[in-house]
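hey so u asked for the seq, here:
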Amino acid sequence: MAKDKNIYTCSECGGNSPKWLGKCPACGAWNTLVESVAEAGGAGKNRFAALASTAAVAVLADIDAVDRERTPTGHEELDRVLGGGIVEGGVVLIGGDPGIGKSTLLLQALDALQRMGRHTLYVSGEESGAQVALRARRLGLEQSQVRVLAEIQLEKILATLQAQQPQVAVIDSIQTVYSEQLTSAPGSVAQVRECAAHLTRAAKSSGTCIILVGHVTKEGALAGPRVLEHMVDTVLYFEGDTHSSFRLVRAIKNRFGAVNEIGVFAMTERGLKGVSNPSAIFLSQHSEPVPGSCVMVTLEGSRPLLVEIQALVDSGGPSPRRLSVGLDRDRLAMLLAVLHRHAGVACMDQDVFVNAVGGVRISEPAADLAVMLAITSSLRGRALPKGFFAFGEVGLAGEVRPAPRGQERLREAAKLGFSVAVVPKANAPKKAIEGLTIHAVERVEQAMQVVRELG
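ran it, structure tokens below
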């Protein structure tokens, strides 16, 4: 018998190489080539040709553009991340650490859709039907009519989708599904890419909304080729510590809605429940103001959230440490330099630790001012006033730049009872906000002066 031919496939881009190389010749990534068995020649010719139907050239102004109808899932926080609900023919990829709640949330969503009269199907490649039923009973989904299929062979799954014609189908998970057209094992780059392409084609041709569950690597990225994220319409990530009861679902890509939206859930004995006021999670409950704490208003998609920034400055000796959790560490070093140069606050011989409460990650520069005020408060051992918050980007020249949608941030803080704000001058409202005293500043020195006067 002829020996099977081995090839090496890049886990980042899906490119092939006849031999192992340290660097992928296609995308340049290092140590990403994985050995696999090449499929027989001609067996899969033009397999992706039907992903998009052939259409004639048309003028953009003449194309009838109609908004896609959305179906609410029954979970307000999940609908927010999806852009209002699921879309007919849409393909959603959801990833996250093991045990974080992906299967739980999707089973709850399918049950809610089924109770609203939608035809649903749950395809489980990791659990048997009895295990899925046991989980449903633990979640309190009594007498659930969700159809369950325990199968990992792609051809059988596609045949079931065609026969059942569900409106929403969940594939849990895409890494367990395999196609007989390929000889490689389930979970390999070729199998994941092939199975996802066929399921995407099935969704587009039949109108079924397909939700794919994806495993993640130890770095937290979705396992499999990066082309998988480009192939689907929406990519969602589960975030949060498995030891905490709170979970965040973040939209990384969404062809039918806004990206960077987040949904906040609390894990209970009856599954995941939406959190209507997520700001309460990210604010510590101090009876009195404490040094090193400053509240800021961040934007997550279209939602303003109040997050507490905590800082601890301690003597560090000749090699001081700079550590941040939930914030960019390189930006922390830059802010310390600005603080020293323009405000005269020196931390060169101090350990500086900064943390965003609640496990949230803040990537926007509007947190700069709150971080600097929290560091100064901890260094001097003086707490900021009660009901105080701040936001604004700080430049290397010491200027305080405006944050986008500042009026919404101010209104959200006032609604939650905050009374004193230090904000960029460009974000100062023209009309006074009831119950809120606003100090508009243009430079870091002015912000420090205002805080000293308030204290």
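The chain has three domains: 6-37, 73-276, 293-454. The first helix runs from residue 76 to 82.
lmk if thats what u needed
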